């Protein structure tokens, strides 16, 4: 199974469209959204082509392919317009004999990990900073941000397939890779 991970769209129709194009080009089986879908948040500038209504339409069009997690900028009012669940604080996935714990990153994060066994994978968004590293016990991943990257990163998403995790930009270049 091939999974695409994306985080922090923040209402950008421009980057949401690029994300969906990448999802189709990658031929991923599922799109895992790690939160902050529609609202830009009070600490962020408006992202390019801020148009939450357009983002709603684009995401609802592929609702059966999305697994989403609530971010700190997502609210019940967002759930009222999106046709797929977004209010869970985390999801647990199983891939190739591994447990993947996915969360936005504002509750559980690298300094406050959920209950994990050695070799498990923790993936989050929230920081807008990409990461792929092996800790002493677990694997820590962050696909970066679709629309508002920080720390001089570019817009990125993650692809997990087999025992490999790649962070890619919208030119489909691998920015970072980690063998799981």
TrEMBL record:
InterPro entries on file: Calcineurin-like_PHP_lpxH (IPR024654), Metallo-depent_PP-like (IPR029052), Phosphodiesterase_MJ0936/Vps29 (IPR000979)
EC number(s) reported in the record: 3.1.4.-
Any GO MF annotation of the entry: hydrolase activity
Cofactor(s) essential for the protein: a divalent metal cation
Enzyme's top EC category: hydrolase
Gene3D superfamilies attached to this UniProt entry: 3.60.21.10
Family the entry assigns: Belongs to the metallophosphoesterase superfamily. YfcE family.
Protein name according to UniProt: Phosphoesterase
Native source species: Lachnotalea glycerini
Lineage of producing organism: Bacteria, Bacillati, Bacillota, Clostridia, Lachnospirales
């Amino acid at each position: 199974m091939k999974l695409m991970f994306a985080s922090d769209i923040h209402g950008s129709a421009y980057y949401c469209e690029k994300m969906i194009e990448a999802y189709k080009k990658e031929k991923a089986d599922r799109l895992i959204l790690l939160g902050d879908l529609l609202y830009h948040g009070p600490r962020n500038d408006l992202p390019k082509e801020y148009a939450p209504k357009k983002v709603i339409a684009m995401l609802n069009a592929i609702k059966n392919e999305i697994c989403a997690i609530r971010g700190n900028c997502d609210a019940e009012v967002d759930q009222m317009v999106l046709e797929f669940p977004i209010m869970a604080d985390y999801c647990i996935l199983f891939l190739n004999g591994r447990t993947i714990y996915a969360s936005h990153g504002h509750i559980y994060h690298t300094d406050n990990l959920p209950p994990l066994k050695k070799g498990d994978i923790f993936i989050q968004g929230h920081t807008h900073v990409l990461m792929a590293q092996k800790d002493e016990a677990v694997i820590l991943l962050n696909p970066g941000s679709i629309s508002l990257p920080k720390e001089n990163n570019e817009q990125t998403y993650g692809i997990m397939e087999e025992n490999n995790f790649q962070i890619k930009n919208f030119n489909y270049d691998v920015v970072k890779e980690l063998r799981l």
